[in-house]
Design brief:
The protein is α/β, with parallel strands linked by helices. It has 2 domains: 80 residues, Immunoglobulin-like (Sandwich), CATH 2.60.40.1180; 190 residues, Rossmann fold (3-Layer(aba) Sandwich). The chain is 26% helix and 34% strand. The chain has 7 helices and 17 strands. An 8-stranded mixed sheet has the order 1-16-17-15-12-9-10-11, sandwiched between helices. It has a 5-stranded mixed sheet with strand order 2-3-4-5-6, with helices on one face. A two-stranded antiparallel ribbon has the order 7-8. The chain is globular. The chain starts with a strand and ends with a strand.
């Protein structure tokens, strides 16, 4: 059954409005406006109100004249006086208390994906429930580390893999701000790392994958989601422990559905274990549900 989840314990985040391919969000005490390709509808608030509320507004570099949408996600932030380039937000769930630094990047991102909070909860709960066994978690395409922090807060050994050195440094800041320590940092292409772990005979009780549609590894390796994901999952199967384990797959590409991702996981893992899949979303003040990604969870 397809499930839907939205953050329920995140007072430091709010989606104020969405529409016309943009979203207006509050992170902590600051409000930012940035592009959102899934927001197909009209805005509820006026452009004047958006301009009044937003302390930072993302402006893309180029326009695609064929459809009115921007062809390039790269751009710059227009800041009002008093808007910092960096600040922190908190996320608390049970005994998990996370503190993450936000920053205004040239690719519209701010350092966290708030809809992922429900997956952080799942990671935390899964590890706590497996307390009697060894818990070692592998986080691939790990970005600024929300999932790594959740796993570490639950008492797991964590290996965090990303191909961008600056993002690893950002993740380390988040770990230290959250009062955590001893995450293993790996700057490497995800596929190469997993292939090496297969050869070494290493195994993990949890594997988290958050792959982009396109990307480059540390040595220029090309990642194309639809061409590479199946092979990556086959390698992950070889290093995932056969019992008391889980795999969590997140996808943001608009070309994939939860059903497709679920079928892929079922095929690779031969219909074993408990599987759930669905969409992650946030709701604006006009009660429009903005879908921001899909997930598949497999528990063995």
């Amino acid at each position: 059954m397809i499930e839907t989840f939205t953050p329920k314990n995140f007072p430091d985040y709010e989606l104020i409005d969405s529409g016309n391919f943009e979203k207006l969000e509050k992170f902590g005490q600051y409000i930012v406006a940035r592009p959102e390709p899934q927001a197909l509808w009209d805005k509820s608030l006026s452009e004047t109100e958006w301009q009044r509320l937003a302390s930072a507004y993302f402006k893309r570099d180029k326009k695609d004249k064929t459809d009115g949408l921007d062809s390039n996600e790269k751009g710059e932030w227009i800041l009002k006086k008093g808007m910092p380039g960096q600040w922190f937000v908190n996320y608390d769930y049970k005994q998990m208390q996370l503190k993450m630094r936000l920053g205004l990047t040239s690719f519209k991102h701010v350092g966290i994906f708030p809809e992922q909070a429900e997956n952080w909860n799942f990671i935390f709960d899964s590890i706590i429930a497996n307390k009697g066994n060894e818990n070692n978690i592998l986080n691939l395409f790990a970005y600024t580390g929300g999932a790594s922090l959740a796993a570490k807060a639950a008492g797991s050994t964590v290996t965090h893999v990303d191909s961008v050195k600056q993002v690893i440094s950002w993740s380390r800041e988040n770990m230290e701000a959250s009062g955590l320590s001893d995450i293993r940092w790996i700057v490497e292409d995800a596929m190469k790392f997993v292939q090496r772990e297969v050869r070494r005979g290493n195994s993990y009780s949890g594997i988290i994958l958050d792959p982009p549609a396109y990307g480059r590894g540390t040595d220029g390796e090309k990642w194309i989601l639809e061409k590479s994901l199946n092979d990556l999952l086959k390698n992950c199967k070889q290093i995932l422990k056969p019992t008391n384990s889980f795999i969590l797959l997140n996808l943001y590409s608009m070309g994939f559905s939860a059903l497709v991702a679920e079928s892929l996981i079922k095929t690779v893992f031969e219909n074993k274990g408990k599987i759930s899949s669905g969409e992650l979303y946030v709701t604006d003040k006009a009660e429009r549900k903005l879908a921001l990604g899909i997930f598949v969870r497999l528990e063995l």
